[in-house]
Design a protein that fits this description.
This protein is an alpha/beta fold. It has 11 helices and 20 strands. The protein has helices at residues 13-22, 49-58, 76-89, 99-107, 123-129, 144-157, 187-192, 239-244, 259-279, 282-287, 289-296; strands at residues 5-9, 26-29, 62-67, 93-96, 112-114, 135-137, 168-175, 209-212, 219-222, 232-234, 249-252, 304-305, 327-339, 344-349, 360-365, 369-374, 379-380, 383-384, 393-397, 407-413. The strands form 3 sheets. It has an 8-stranded parallel β-barrel with strand order 1-2-3-4-5-6-7-11, surrounded by 5 helices. It has an 8-stranded antiparallel β-sheet with strand order 16-15-20-13-14-19-17-18. α1 (13-22) packs parallel to α9 (259-279). The model has no long low-confidence stretch (mean pLDDT 90).
Length: 417
């Protein structure tokens, strides 16, 4: 059975480690500003590149650097420098959309994965890009049947890439959907002079809008469906069908998301793929879908939809602003010390949100990644307590290593209105 690779997002070292621990097969990330998430908080610095590659190689995980913005004449020297840095660091591949980037990367012998920004939707376009790339990311507006047809045509026509291997097809499996679906949106540039195609989208489409009759000056708020804000994509409910289409890679959106988002999403899909591979039985797979959906709903989402995969009209909108996650995290303190010989963490509480027995904690740091912990014992000055308040230093047993200055959060349910 063909089991696709899981390609996870990484916007920080904590998210990277969360993805690796959750069982991904590959990661994608940005360095600098030539990618679709061109902000410092969702990118690595150039000096981080060797460390990112090192961590991934230790786990036998592929590394994909995103250089998928459009490029202007003034960008050529910096683009080439970034490709050279990626090559020197031993990155597995460059994800690119602009032909200038694609051509230069190929000249340098760097593998290229063609971005969904190109909107590859047919076999003719596949044949064209097979000259330059061994992996193509399909347009997100395709149905499952259209995806399967392209994969089958690649096999029947024996379409191969630069390495002489059959072209691999990559598709999106989970995460935010843009109103422009596969990209190339001009709305943010028009409204705020910040180009989405340069990684600086202001997400104007996620807002409420008002239509005004210029003759009468009467206006109507169009807020019932948030008409340009799509619900997020989730394929967990029909993952066996997606696997059976023959795609080689499942891509997960979320470089701007938290480490717990990455951990939850990648863990759920890893578990689902492993179960389907083991059982090859859709009935046993489907028994687990409600629980998987419940877990996916605990982290950031705007509602979950099937996108275009099932051939439906795209009428699944966010129907509201912001996050619909059923859980949130509240920072309560920092790790002061970890005593490895006895597996005990020492934490100082900084807020009025008191940790207590039975609470779930998330401990997050650039080296630690993400550690989940349920408090079963709590000590204050060596005495067992049920809770701790602001300014107090508490200790508790925790098997996984945490580190000084790791942030400590309470994981709490969100009250539904």
């Amino acid at each position: 059975m063909n089991i696709p690779k899981i390609l996870a997002p990484a916007g920080s070292f904590a998210s990277l480690r969360a993805a690796l621990d959750a069982g991904c097969d590959a990661v994608y990330f940005g360095v600098g500003d030539f990618n679709m998430r061109a902000t410092a908080s969702t990118n690595f610095a150039e000096e981080d590149l060797s460390e990112v590659v090192k961590l991934c190689r230790e786990k036998k995980v592929e590394t994909n650097i995103t250089l998928n913005t459009i490029m202007y004449n003034s960008d050529m020297a910096r683009m080439r420098r970034m490709v050279n840095l990626a090559s020197d660091a031993g990155v597995s591949a460059v994800i690119a959309a602009d032909m200038a980037t694609i051509l230069y990367a190929r000249e340098q012998g760097v593998d290229v994965h063609v971005s969904t920004q190109v909107s590859i939707s047919n076999i003719e376009t596949v044949r064209f890009f097979a000259q330059y790339s061994d992996r193509l990311v399909l347009a997100r507006e395709l149905t499952l049947d259209q995806v399967a047809e392209i994969v089958e045509q690649i096999k029947s026509e024996d379409i191969r890439g630069p390495k002489g291997e059959l072209i691999e097809i990559e598709v999106f499996a989970h995460g935010a959907l843009c109103v422009s679906v596969s990209g190339r949106c001009g709305m943010s540039l028009f409204c705020a002079n910040r180009s989405a195609n340069r990684g600086k989208c202001t997400q104007a489409c996620r807002r409420k809008f008002r239509v005004t009759d210029t003759a009468t000056n009467q206006s109507l708020d169009i807020d019932n469906n948030y008409v340009m804000s799509s619900a997020d994509l989730a394929t967990i409910g029909f993952l066996p069908e997606l696997v059976n289409s023959g795609v080689a890679v499942l891509k997960f959106e979320g470089r701007g998301r938290s480490p717990e988002y990455v951990d939850t999403v990648i863990s759920v899909y890893r578990e689902a793929l492993d179960l389907y591979k083991k059982s090859q039985d859709q009935s046993s797979y489907r028994e687990n879908i409600p629980e998987w959906n419940k877990r996916l709903g605990t982290v950031f989402n705007r509602g979950l939809s099937k996108g275009f995969y099932m051939g439906r009209q795209m009428d699944e909108w966010a129907r509201g602003a912001g996050n619909k996650a059923t859980y949130k995290k509240i920072q309560i303190g920092l790790v002061e010390k970890y005593y490895g010989e006895i597996a005990v963490a020492q934490v100082i509480v900084h807020t009025d949100d008191k940790p207590k027995l039975g609470d779930e904690l998330l401990i997050i740091g650039p080296t630690t990644g993400l550690v989940k912990h349920k408090i079963v014992s709590l000590q204050l000055d060596g005495v067992e307590v049920k809770t701790a308040g602001k300014g107090q230093v508490v200790t508790f047993k925790i098997d996984k290593r945490v580190r000084e200055n790791d942030k400590v959060y309470l994981r709490v349910p969100v009250k539904q209105v």
